[in-house]
TrEMBL record:
Taxonomic classification: Bacteria, Bacillati, Actinomycetota, Candidatus Aquicultoria, Candidatus Aquicultorales
Organism: Candidatus Aquicultor primus
Transmembrane spans: 20-38, 439-457
NCBIfam families: fliF
Protein name: Flagellar M-ring protein
Main subcellular location of this protein, as a coarse class: other
Sequence ranges of Polar residues compositional bias: 328-343
Keyword Transmembrane helix in annotation: yes
Amino acid sequence: MLENAKTGWDKLDINQKMIILMTIILFVVALGSLFYWVSRPSYSVLFSNLSSEDAGAIVAKLQEKKVPYRLNGSSIIEVPSNQVHEARIQLAGEGLPEGGTVGFEIFDQTNFGLSEFAQKLNYRRALEGELGRTISQINEIEGARVHIVLPEPSLYKDKENPATASVVIKPRAGARLADSKVQGIVNLVSKSIEGLKTENITVVDTTGNILNEATGDSSFASGGNYTKTQLGAKEAYEGTLEKSIESMLGTVLGSESNAVVRVSADLDFTQKSTASKIVKQEEEPVVISEEVDKEKYEGQGASPGGIPGVTSQVPSSATSEQQASATYPSGSQSDGDSTYSRQKKTTNYGFTEISEQEVKPPGELKKLSVAVVVNNDGSKPIRDETIEELVSAACGIDKGRGDVLTVSSVPFDTEWMKKEEKAIADAQQREMYAEYGKYALVAILVMVGLFALLKVISSVRPARQPELLAPRSVAAAGVASLDLGDINISKITPEKKREMQIEQRKSQLTKEEIQNLAKERPGDVAQLLRIWLNT
């Protein structure tokens, strides 16, 4: 095969060789360009919003690791999509990006000339930088900065100002930071700084919204307007109820899109505590304790009596009127003997006593309003009464509490939905066609290149075949081969020798072509020999 190709190439003139070479070069260039366009990597963002220092350090590391990259502006670095995660892990292991802040590495280099004030300032900067880096590791946060105020210590505790801190957070695109994570950030900062209380920490986002306002359980105890936590609990309750009703109606109506539910709940977040004590009287009380006190006196003479006090105790010099006013009851007396007795009995009864303490948790439902709109497109009969009964039972409507439930069935306008679905389907179809088009273009270019190459080769072959089939050419080849044997080679000049070598080469090529032709087309060669013999 290679010998045949070489023989055919030698038979071509300079123009034919140039055409074939140019065709091959153009085909290779086009095919290589197409493969580069199809297989070129898609780039994704590695880091964005970088400071100049971080961007320079990251680019240097990427060049060192021979990772391809490209800059989109001065603060965005992109790398191939299949290397994003690996590059981030490698750079994070080397402490990049630093976020434009310094941490405790500021103390790696000792400077003995720093004043005490400069050392305190560097410590605060390092503490702020380390906290900012730690907070930035949270998934929903793209970046964070911490500002700390550490007051000077005072000799008097009551005159010492408290430490304060503020945290500025930049959430990632489309991410929402949960209240629990905000509270976690507050606790993290509080436990990292000595003497810093959680109530002296403020967390805000880049739009200026305070994120840690009224966090914790104490926020439920306030009344009046809803706090952020209370509003979140209210929205969560309403959303759960809406999804539950829509899911139920979707089963009845065939699809959740055939019903729209809106719930408004009035919740009481006031926390109350009530204590009560109930005494239950029994028919036969139970005696708990009984005390008996007895006193008895026996002796001669009158028993003691009279009115106690000053009047009864006056001396003999008192007036007769005063003495006459004093009377003395006499006790029992017999032959000058007297007897005195007294008995006192105290009985304590027990009763059943019930003590109750009721703590009313915040979030009690005061009133519930539910509105339901059902798609009545006429495909199936819908009874509003049935829907109302189902919804009322599902969400616990209480008319006595003042709850309101409204159900309406109207035809929905679904044209916009159809347009959206069609737009999405068209976009997916275009994306699929573009993907298929890449491979189709590769196949077309390959076929065109092969066709052009075969066309050039086929245009050359017919010019050679007549020479192979011509009788004179064969005879000339034989004569040329015979003449070479009669020549005295020692008398041949160099120019003549070169001419003879060329003629011999042509004769050899002609023989080889005839042999190849006889192998490939034996029938045609036999027919040609018959014609020559007959002539």
